Amino acid sequence: MAKLIDGKKISQEIKDEVKEKVAKLKEEGIRISLAVIQVGNNPASTVYVGNKKKACAYVGIQSLAYELPGETTEEELLQLIRELNEKEEVNGILVQLPLPEQIDEDKVIRTIDPKKDVDGFHPQSVGALSIGQKGFVSCTPAGIIQLLKRSDILMDGKECVIVGRSNIVGKPMALLLLRENATVTVCHSHTTDLKAVTRRADILIVAIGKAKMVDADYIKEGAVVIDVGMNRDENGKLCGDVDFESVQEKASAITPVPGGVGPMTIAMLMNNCVESARMKEK
Ligand code: GUN
Fold it and tell me: Which candidate, 141, 135, 99, 144, places its Cα nearest to that of 117?
């Protein structure tokens, strides 16, 4: 039976560490603020944005909420971002994705000042990560590295397989695991024999957005399984991309959904906000 990797507990530890760092900076007269922009009212985005604001309040970061109507034009959003780029007191700018179809996401991401890109989505941040230079790292993959480290799971020399090649998770995950000296394979929808590859994994990371797709058949005995998925099953219950019930019999450790990777993303966002304020002071 697999050991449960408790993302709720580990993310709480990180938030408490961030809270201390924020308090110390406050003693030095440094306050931290994060601008959170939501365009339209996608219900999932509203939940995520609400959780981000709650986390800000917990650690002592001021959140500035910008709730824009769904009909907002691209130029209006870009203008707001340019204004926030200029604002001395704003340390981080987060634009919740997805955006309505009239707005080009790439353009929006490129407009955010890389020094305030706490999501780590700007091409400059991604480029820095790929050549091992300093920059903000996408929060979900950064959170997964923390989950593994704080659960004493060694990455060095291990065979790590990532299923999914998104810009937000799969690709930065591969780069971060390389930095930890893992051997990394990235699979995706065109991979010919997916099971043959995932069965090689000592550490398997699944981020495909398909409810319970990865069952015990995809897993090597004793593997560590990280589930990035957030879906609803046939009964409307939250579930991951991994079939938890069958996989937990075969894996040595596994993240649950909810309570695994999800809470880590927000904890790492809070940490990036602190880093942004620190870098500005340097
Ligand atoms: N939408 C889904 N995940 C994320 C995230 O990590 N950041 C932003 N800005 N939008 C998202």
Answer: 135
pTM over cut 0.85: yes
| Local structure of 188: helix, strand or coil | coil
30 lines ligand 1 (CB under 6 A): no
Name the stretches of the chain with pLDDT < 70. Answer: none
Place of tokens 């797709």: 213
- Is position 87 annotated as part of the catalytic site? no
139 CB less than 6 Å from ligand 1? Answer: yes
Sheet containing 62-68, strands listed edge to edge, beginning at the edge strand earlier in sequence: 62-68, 33-39, 92-95
Atom from ligand 1 closest to the CA of residue 94: 9
Catalytic residue check, 117: no
pLDDT, tens only, 219-243: 999 999 999 999 999 999 999 999 9
CATH numbers and ranges of domains, the chain: 29-114 (3.40.50.10860), 139-262 (3.40.50.720)
